[in-house]
Design brief:
By secondary structure, the protein is an alpha+beta fold. It is 42% helix and 17% strand.
Length: 71
Amino acid sequence: MASIPAHDAQRRADAIGGRLTALFDRSGKGIGQVCPWELVVFNDLSEAARAAAAWIVADSVMKDRTELIPS
């Protein structure tokens, strides 16, 4: 497994507006049933996309822990 440099992950995350939803496809399942659910899958399985997703999650966690308000 190759390692994606942090600045590359951040650049990719910034390019998609820091939105995880840009990296996933969602589809509703079981609509109208007792327990509807959604299937969420990566729309891009590349290491760069996964690194961007990790960057977005880590950045969000750090902002939450440090109580930073996004600009």
